[in-house]
Amino acid sequence: MEEEVQLQLLDTEDMMKKAFIHLEDELARVRAGKASPSILDGIQVDYYGSMTPLSQVSNVNTPDARTISVQPWEKSMIEPIEKAILAANIGLTPMNNGELIRINIPVLTEERRRDLVKQIKNMAENSRVSIRTARRDANEAFKKMKKDGLSEDIEKDAEGQVQELTDKFIARIDKLVEAKEKDIMTI
Fold first, then answer.
1. Residue 54: is it exposed, middle or buried by C-beta count within 10 angstroms (0-12/13-18/19+)?
2. pTM for the whole thing?
3. I want to staple 72 with a disulfide (CB 3.0 to 4.6 A). Which of 29, 58, 65, 179 is the partner?
4. Which domains are present in the chain?
């Protein structure tokens, strides 16, 4: 019975970690006014009939704070990459000079910065909800185990450990969002 409790705790921690990692990935894609190759993460390019990540058909780097350059490994890939960036609907317009694609990152207005902060707070709240759902699922599993013969002390200890995990991950989310908010609001 105690092994089942430990397995449930590990599963719960794993679910909470996944929610946190997902939030980190989402926040990396949020444009904070500075050029970052991670803005283009997740863009898929039609590479001879199969959808391939942009990073596998080109070099993506930032020559300066306001520019992202995409250097395709094959010149014939310039148009499909340009189309994929436009289709990704990330609010950026690629410019191609026949050899590479440049994407200029516009300076964010105060209003746009506030919108981005609202957006990241919304993402953070979704992650918090996922973490609380993992806590609820674990606590329900412990109650079910109690009906099957688990002692009340072990159940209460397990619920306490799940609450500690919940508090730890929510604190990490708050710290991550605070840092991203500061980054966005800095001009």
1. buried
2. 0.73
3. 58
4. 2-29+109-185 (1.10.132.20), 37-104 (3.30.1360.40)
